[in-house]
Amino acid sequence: MTKNVIAFQGEPGAYSHQACRFYRPQMEALPCRTFEDVIDAVRSGRAELAMLPVENSTYGRVADIHHLLPESGLHIIDEGFVRVRISLLGVPGARIEDVTDAMSHTVLLGQCRGFLKQHDIRSITGADTAGSAMEVARRGEKSLAALAAPLAGEIYKLDELASGIEDRQNNTTRFLIMSREPNYARRDGLAGSATMMTTFVFRVRNIPAALYKAMGGFATNGVNMTKLESYMVDGIFTATQFYADIEGHPEDPNVARALEELAYFTSSLEILGVYPADPLRAEQAAETA
Fold it and tell me: Which keywords describe this protein according to UniProt (predicted)?
């Protein structure tokens, strides 16, 4: 296995690349074309870790990721929350007044509607954020700018014409860091440690009120479930798989009891990872308490 390499999807300068720099600054970041390529890079040993986005505070879950994770053979060992700060990037010497068109991924364009309308800038859909910055640098036109992370401007030598132009100032993407091997050794309650999280997928048995009964064990055992999502399997409406995040470690007595009860009402149950909660979780909980 190639040590000290972390794979991500997108061109250099993408938000996933920014996440790699922040959470694994000592590692070399390996750009990959698709999420499947990221997973394959770790499975084949070309990379030690994978950085995968799973959900965004504005746009919800990232398409296809929930389908890929259970089949990936990888394990979640950490999570990270990256604040999506969007910059308007232009060629050297350009000013905002020169820009008539802005290129980016359609999701990012939708997050800057107010700024673009204010400056009468037209939207152009690009393949992705960093790729749009690369294209702006290639064309060298003052009238064309990109909406991307500041890191993309650094990499492609573009000027930051405006920063923090997103409509929602709390826009955040959650990433999962994945490895070929699980790590259950870390525990909460130790000095300086965070709450542990456990992520798993399951399918309920075909019996009345199976999901309701399966969830009862978490309530009665005082286990906080922070996420529960359903999605179809193999495009079949009657085949539903659930993705869940809970607070705690599988070896905690209350979590162990809840998972044991869950297993009774499920036809399959797979733990995808056990990992420390990102500090932002505690901060958000304090703000909403």
Answer: Amino-acid biosynthesis, Aromatic amino acid biosynthesis, Lyase, Phenylalanine biosynthesis
Pick from 63, 62, 81: which is nearest to 23 by CA? 81
| 3-state secondary structure string across 223-277 | CCEEEEEEEEECCEEEEEEEEEEEECCCCCHHHHHHHHHHHHCEEEEEEEEEEEC
Active site residues: 173, 175
Per-residue b/e over 89-117, b at no fewer than 16 CB within 10 Å?
Answer: bbbeebeeeebeebbbbeebbebbeebbe
Residues 72 and 122 in one domain: no
For the chain, what is the domain count?
3
Confidence of residue 219 (pLDDT cuts 50, 70, 90): very high
- Answer whether 0.70 is exceeded by the pTM: yes
262 and 130 together in one domain: no
Rounded to the nearest angstrom, the gap between the alpha carbon of residue 50 and the centroid of all alpha carbons in its chain is 11
Residue 192's pLDDT is what? 45
Range of the domain at 222: 184-288
Q: 116 and 204, same structural domain?
A: no
- pLDDT tens profile 191-218: 444 689 999 999 988 778 888 888 999 9
Asked if 242 and 204 touch (Cβ cutoff 8 Å), the reply is: yes
Q: Are 60 and 15 in contact (CB under 8 A)?
A: no
Residue pair 162/87 in contact by the 8 Å Cβ criterion: yes
Residues 190, 230, single domain; the answer is yes
Q: Which of 255, 268, 269 lies closest to 225, judged by CA? A: 255
What distances in angstroms separate CA 197 from CA 76, 78, 194, one per listed residue? 10, 9, 9
How does pLDDT run across 221-246, given as a tens digit for each residue?
A: 999 999 999 877 766 655 578 999 99
Residues 85 and 150: their CA atoms lie apart, in Å, by 8
